[in-house]
Amino acid sequence: MRELFEAAGRALLRAVWSGDEGPVPNSRSRGVLLTLSAIGAVLGAWSSYAVLASDTVGGATRITVAAILGALPLVLVTLRPLWAWRLGLVAMVFGGLAHTYLHGQPWPWTPVQIIVMMIVLFVVATGNTAGVVAWVAVLTLIPITVYVRPQNAPGASVVVFVLLLLGHQIGRRRQAQRRLKVEEGRSEVEHARRAVLEERTRIARELHDVVAHHLSMITVRAQTAPYRIPDLPEAATTELAELGDAAREALNEMRRLLGVLRSEDSAAERAPQPGLDALPGLLDTARAAGIRVDATVLGDAALPAGVSLTGYRIVQEALSNASRHAPGAGVRVEVRREARALVLDVHNGASPHGPTTHAGPGHGLVGMRERVGMLGGELAAGPTVDGGWRVSARLPCTDD
Q: Which has the closest alpha carbon to 117: 60, 148, 100?
């Protein structure tokens, strides 16, 4: 119960005095609001003079001031909604006091003032908590109860409650939509991070085979060296045996690492990892699937296993993307071996069937960037002027 009273007190304090922050309009919106407020003040004063029953200077002045005060909240309603409501509440009290100079009128406020106050109540309800909205309703009903005729007070009270309730519900819906957008943004970021991690894990599993092959060769050559090379010194034989044991231990650790990287639902990969020497088979498979591929391979110098594997995967992913996003388009593949780098270029034209929108998102580009970044290379991927797509990569073949 104590917490409930404390919450109610805080809501009352905020409604009565604490500041608030509303959406800040641009200069054009502020100008429109200022113009409407000035027009409302003039119309309110004019309508008040039209129904004056007294020609006293004091009565005319009070009614005019009340009409102007009633229109001013329109200037603050988007900047400081609660302050606009407070100013409107003061205008309601002042208008009720000035109503003594008007005779036979059902309402102590001008139509302009009533409309402005309805707008202010609605805006306040959309941006504040339920406790603040409840206190706003209670405090707004006080001048209505005091100054409005008994037969009109219930209807005015219902209008106030409906406006506040409708505004509060709309405000809650807007907040829920904003939170949903924030969560969607977080989900997209998390999805991107997960895609990167999945690709890195996949690359690590593939590179395991390359590293394991080299370690196996070191082990075999070190252990068979005494039998292949006659008259080896005893120190060299011992050194080679220790090297073989170290290589075998490293190979075992690599296998344990692969077990950590492999997810629970992934099957063991038993096939050897491909390289650019398997590129003709990849191109034949793509042609059999209906892709028109024109390939050019320049240079036949030996490549490091990691570079060869990365080059093969980039061409494979680029062909797969072309088949999904540009069906029927021709694809040009160029693989060029330079002195210190491997250069790849895969370019597909626009699809004759138009752009596809049903293809789901993949991790192909993420995987390409991870593979190229691992080797310290460069990757460029993007649309071309002919409506197609181009992937260019440069993979260094040295450790410099």
A: 148
**HEC per residue, 30-60:** HHHHHHHHHHHHHHHHHHHHHCCCCCCHHHH
What residues form DSSP beta bridges with 342? 337, 395
Element (H, E) at 342: strand 341-348
User: Per-residue pLDDT tens for 41-60?
Assistant: 566 555 554 444 444 444 55
CA gap 56, 101 in Å, rounded: 9
Number of neighbours of residue 373 by Cβ within 10 angstroms: 12
| Total number of residues shown for the chain | 400
Nearest to 323 by CA among 295, 285, 296, 297: 285
In the block, residue with structure tokens 């006659």: 230
* pTM more than 0.90: no
DSSP 275: -
Rounded CA separation 229/6 (Å): 91
